[in-house]
TrEMBL record:
<dbReference type="Pfam" id="PF05199">
    <property type="entry name" value="GMC_oxred_C"/>
</dbReference>
<protein>
    <submittedName>
        <fullName>GMC oxidoreductase</fullName>
    </submittedName>
</protein>
<feature type="region of interest" description="Disordered">
    <location>
        <begin position="1"/>
        <end position="20"/>
    </location>
</feature>
<dbReference type="InterPro" id="IPR012132">
    <property type="entry name" value="GMC_OxRdtase"/>
</dbReference>
<dbReference type="InterPro" id="IPR000172">
    <property type="entry name" value="GMC_OxRdtase_N"/>
</dbReference>
<feature type="active site" description="Proton acceptor">
    <location>
        <position position="632"/>
    </location>
</feature>
<dbReference type="Pfam" id="PF00732">
    <property type="entry name" value="GMC_oxred_N"/>
</dbReference>
<dbReference type="InterPro" id="IPR036188">
    <property type="entry name" value="FAD/NAD-bd_sf"/>
</dbReference>
<comment type="similarity">
    <text>Belongs to the GMC oxidoreductase family.</text>
</comment>
<keyword id="KW-0285">Flavoprotein</keyword>
<feature type="domain" description="Glucose-methanol-choline oxidoreductase N-terminal">
    <location>
        <begin position="371"/>
        <end position="385"/>
    </location>
</feature>
<keyword id="KW-0274">FAD</keyword>
<dbReference type="GO" id="GO:0016614">
    <property type="term" value="F:oxidoreductase activity, acting on CH-OH group of donors"/>
</dbReference>
<dbReference type="InterPro" id="IPR007867">
    <property type="entry name" value="GMC_OxRtase_C"/>
</dbReference>
<feature type="active site" description="Proton donor">
    <location>
        <position position="588"/>
    </location>
</feature>
<feature type="binding site">
    <location>
        <position position="185"/>
    </location>
    <ligand>
        <name>FAD</name>
    </ligand>
</feature>
<feature type="binding site">
    <location>
        <position position="330"/>
    </location>
    <ligand>
        <name>FAD</name>
    </ligand>
</feature>
Length: 652
C-alpha cells in the first residue's frame, strides 16, 4: 500500500504532452505556466569535444502551491519529462494524511527511501508480521525518462531529483566551490548515479571486519550478500566477466555494456601490448580488481536498475505491510520520553519548512537510511553529535557523540582528454534527429545507443611500492589487492577520448556540519579535498599513468594530441595547478557515521549498526562505512544493507 497522495497533475503524462522542442512559452490546461528563461550549454564532464548537449532552464510558476516559483533545467526533448517531474514534485501528502500517520502503528520506520532504505524496506516486509513505513523527502521515480534511460544519467543534476548541495569553498582547490549531487527521489542516489557496479576489493571488506572487530563484515563472510547482485544481459558476455563470482537470483540487475565501441579492441590490445602495467582482469568484482576490466553496470532490460525499480518494484510495493510516504522531510529523531536508557523511536516529519511537524513512533526500531549527508544532518539536528558544536547553534544535546558528521571520505577526480583521428558521427547528444530515433528505439524495445552510459572499460592501478610518496605516508589502501587509482580508459565519442582519473584511497577527510539550527537549511559539506599531499600525488601519478596507457602501440596513429591538461603540462607544479583547478567529487561521500567496535568511544554505530549510547535507532547507508572502498560505492551499500536486514530480522 502507498500512502502517497495523488497529484492533481498526474494525468499529464507523455501521452498527453508529446515532446515540444520549439516550445518557448506554453500554458497548460492547468494553472501552470512554463517559461524558458535561459538557454545554456552544460560542459560535459566526461567529454572535452566542446560539443556538449544543450540544456534549457525553466522558470515554473503555479497558483495554489506554497512554493510558486522554481527553476529547473532539462534537455529540450525532455519537456514531457518536465511534466512528469512537476507532477511528482507536487505529490505532496496533504496535512491530513500526514497527521493520520501519527495515529498508525509501525514496527519499523525507515528514514530515506534511497539505495539502502529500499533494500531494508523490501527485506523487512518479507515478514508479513512487520509493518514498515518508509519516509522519503523526494518524489517518485516512476515514469521519469531521465532516470529510466541509462544514457540520460547526466541529465539529473540540478533537477528536483537532486538535493543540489554545494560544498564550502575548498582550500585544496584554490577556494573553488563544488556541487555535490545526491538523489532526492525514491531510490535515492541509485536513481541518479552513473550505474557503475564495483564491489571494491576483498581487502576493503577485510579491513571493515578488522577495524570493527566483527568478522561478519569480511569478504568471505559477506559472500551470501555479495552474490545477491547478478549480472544479466542479452548479449554473449563470454570473456567479459567471471560467472563464478556472481549470483544469479538477486533482486537488482547488473549487466555488461551492450553497444560495441570503436575503441574497445584497442583497449583490449593494450592489455596485451603493455600487460606488465595494464594486465587484463576478467572480473572487476572478483575481490581482486587490479588490471583492465569490462565495466559492469546496474542496467537491466535496457533500463536503469535503481533500488526503487527493483527492491521497490510494484510486486513489493503492493505488500499490505509496506507503506511509503513521499515528498516528506524528516527533521529530527526524538526520545520516546519513557524513563530509562535513551530510546530514539520517534521521528519528526513535515511536508515543508512552514508546515506542521508530525511525530511518528516505531514500536520496534527507527532505521536511518538518509545517506552520508542526510543521516548526520538529521542526527545533528536532533541533538546527537559534538555537544560543544551543537551548543554553539543553540541545539540541546541529547547524546554527545563527537564523531557524527566527521570522517567524511570522498573520491576526488580530475580528467585527461585526447584528440583522435576518429570521425564525428552525429549522436543523440549533438543531433535532435538522432536523439528522436534513438529514443523511439529505446521506447519500442529498450535497446540501442541510449542503453549505453559512457565507456566499456576501467583500469585499476596501484602506485608502485617503491614510490617516494611512501616515505612520507603509510600506504592508505586496505591491502595489496586494492587499487590507488581508477582510470576510465576507452571512453570515446568519435573524435575525442576522455578519461576520469580518480584517487580511490584518499587520505583527506572532512566534515558534514550544521549551518544553523533550522533542519531545512542545507548542511555545511567540507570534504577537504586535496588537503593531503598523498591525494595530490595520486592524481599526478594517475595522469602520468593514463599517458603511458595511450602511448601504447594500439593507439599509434589514432591519437593526435592531448587536449587537457596538454602535453606541455608535465612538471609536478604544473600538474598540481591543473589538478587543483579541475578536481571535482566523484559523488562517493561516505563514513560520516562510521562503524567501530562495540564499546569503542570513537565511531557512531556498533558493528550491528546500532547508534552508540542509545536504543531504538540503527543506521544503514553509506555513512556507516569505516573507510571509503576503492571503487564506486553503490554495490557496498547494497551489500551492507542486505546484511543489515538479516541482522535486524535476527534481532526481532
Ligand atoms: C551523481 C552520482 C553518481 C554516482 N555514480 C555512481 C556509480 O556510477 N556507481 C556507484 O557504485 N556509485 C555511484 N554513486 C554513489 C552511490 O549511488 C551512493 O553511494 C549510494 O547510492 C548511496 O546510497 P545510500 O543509501 O547511502 O544513500 P541514498 O541512495 O542517497 O539515499 C538516501 C535517501 O534518503 C533521502 N533523505 C535524505 N535526507 C532525508 C530527510 N531529511 N528526510 C527524508 N528523506 C531523506 C534521500 O532523498 C535519498 O532518497 C553516485 C552517486 C551520485 C549522486
Amino acid at each position: 500500500m502507498s500512502i502517497a497522495a495523488r497529484s492533481p497533475f498526474a494525468r499529464h503524462t507523455r501521452a498527453h504532452h508529446p515532446s515540444c522542442p520549439a516550445l518557448s512559452r506554453q500554458r497548460l490546461r492547468t494553472n501552470i505556466t512554463v517559461i524558458i528563461i535561459h538557454e545554456r550549454t552544460v560542459p560535459c564532464a566526461y567529454m572535452h569535444s566542446g560539443r556538449s548537449p544543450t540544456w534549457y532552464k525553466f522558470e515554473v510558476s503555479s497558483t495554489g502551491y506554497d512554493n510558486p516559483k522554481r527553476i529547473y533545467q532539462m534537455r529540450q526533448l525532455s519537456f514531457a519529462s518536465f511534466i512528469v517531474l512537476w507532477s511528482h514534485c507536487h505529490q505532496a501528502v496533504d496535512a491530513q494524511s500526514l497527521s493520520d500517520l501519527a495515529t498508525k502503528t509501525f514496527d519499523f520506520v525507515i528514514i530515506g527511501g534511497g539505495t539502502a532504505g529500499s533494500v531494508i524496506a523490501n527485506r523487512l516486509t518479507e515478514n508479513p508480521k512487520f509493518n514498515v513505513l518508509v519516509i522519503e523527502a523526494g518524489p517518485s521515480n516512476d515514469g521519469v525518462l531521465d532516470i529510466m534511460v541509462p544514457a540520460f544519467a547526466f541529465g539529473l543534476a540540478n533537477t528536483a531529483y537532486d538535493w543540489n548541495f554545494t560544498m564550502v569553498p575548498q582550500v585544496g582547490l584554490n577556494g573553488r566551490v563544488l556541487t555535490l549531487e545526491r538523489g532526492h527521489v525514491l531510490g535515492g542516489s541509485s536513481s541518479v548515479n552513473g550505474m557503475d557496479y564495483t564491489r571494491g576489493s576483498s581487502d576493503d571488506y577485510d579491513r571493515f571486519a578488522r577495524v570493527t572487530g566483527d568478522q561478519g563484515w569480511s569478504w568471505n563472510n559477506l559472500q551470501p550478500y555479495i552474490l545477491r547482485c547478478p549480472p544479466a544481459d542479452g548479449h554473449n558476455v563470454t570473456g567479459e566477466f567471471d560467472p563464478r563470482v556472481h549470483g544469479f537470483d538477486g533482486i537488482n540487475f547488473v549487466s555488461l555494456g551492450s553497444n560495441p565501441l570503436a575503441v574497445d579492441q584497442r583497449v583490449i590490445q593494450t592489455t596485451v601490448d603493455l600487460k606488465d602495467e595494464f594486465p587484463f582482469s576478467l572480473d572487476v568484482n572478483s575481490g581482486k580488481p587490479l588490471g583492465v576490466s569490462w565495466v559492469q553496470s546496474t542496467i537491466g532490460q535496457g533500463e536503469r536498475s535503481n533500488a526503487a525499480r527493483t527492491y521497490l518494484a510494484p510486486k513489493y510495493r503492493s505488500r499490505p505491510n509496506l507503506h511509503i510516504v513521499l515528498n516528506t522531510f524528516v527533521t529530527r529523531v526524538l526520545p520516546t520520553g519513557v524513563n530509562g536508557p535513551l530510546d530514539l523511536r520517534v521521528v519528526e516529519i513535515a511536508s515543508n519548512a512552514t508546515g506542521p511537524r508530525i511525530r511518528v513512533t516505531a514500536t520496534k526500531e527507527v532505521i536511518t537510511s538518509a545517506g552520508s549527508i542526510g543521516t548526520p544532518h538529521i542526527l545533528l539536528n536532533s541533538g546527537i553529535g559534538d555537544k560543544a558544536d551543537l551548543a554553539a547553534l543553540g541545539i540541546k544535546s541529547i547524546l554527545n557523540l563527537s564523531h557524527v558528521g566527521k570522517n567524511l571520505h570522498d573520491h576526488p577526480t580530475t580528467s585527461v582528454a585526447f584528440l583522435t583521428i576518429g570521425k564525428d558521427v552525429p549522436t543523440w547528444q549533438t543531433n535532435a534527429t538522432v536523439l528522436a530515433e534513438n529514443l523511439a528505439q529505446w521506447e519500442a524495445n529498450r535497446t540501442g545507443p541510449l542503453v549505453q552510459f559512457l565507456g566499456h572499460h576501467v583500469a585499476w592501478t596501484r602506485i608502485p611500492s617503491n614510490s617516494s610518496i611512501f616515505k612520507q605516508f603509510p600506504d592508505p589502501s586496505a591491502g595489496p589487492n586494492t587499487p590507488h587509482l581508477e582510470l576510465t580508459v576507452g571512453r570515446s565519442d568519435g573524435s575525442t577520448i576522455s578519461c576520469d582519473v580518480v584517487a580511490v584511497t584518499p587520505t583527506s577527510t572532512g566534515t558534514v556540519k550544521l549551518r544553523s539550527n533550522n533542519p531545512f537549511d542545507d548542511p555545511l559539506i567540507d570534504p577537504q579535498f586535496l588537503t593531503s599531499n598523498f591525494d595530490l600525488f595520486a592524481l599526478r601519478e594517475g595522469i602520468r599513468t593514463i599517458r603511458r596507457f595511450y602511448s601504447g602501440p594500439a593507439w599509434k596513429g589514432y591519437i593526435v594530441a592531448e587536449i587537457v591538461p596538454g602535453a606541455n603540462v608535465t612538471s609536478d607544479d604544473d600538474l598540481n595547478e591543473y589538478i587543483r583547478n579541475t578536481v571535482s567529487s566523484f559523488a562517493h561521500p561516505v563514513s560520516t557515521a562510521k562503524m567501530s567496535p562495540k564499546g569503542a568511544s570513537n565511531g557512531v554505530v556498533d558493528p550491528d549498526l546500532r547508534l552508540k549510547g542509545a536504543k531504538g535507532l540503527r543506521i544503514v547507508d553509506a555513512s556507516v562505512m569505516p573507510f571509503v572502498t576503492a571503487g564506486h560505492t553503490q554495490a557496498p551499500v547494497y551489500i551492507i544493507a542486505e546484511r543489515a536486514a538479516d541482522i535486524i530480522k535476527a534481532a526481532w
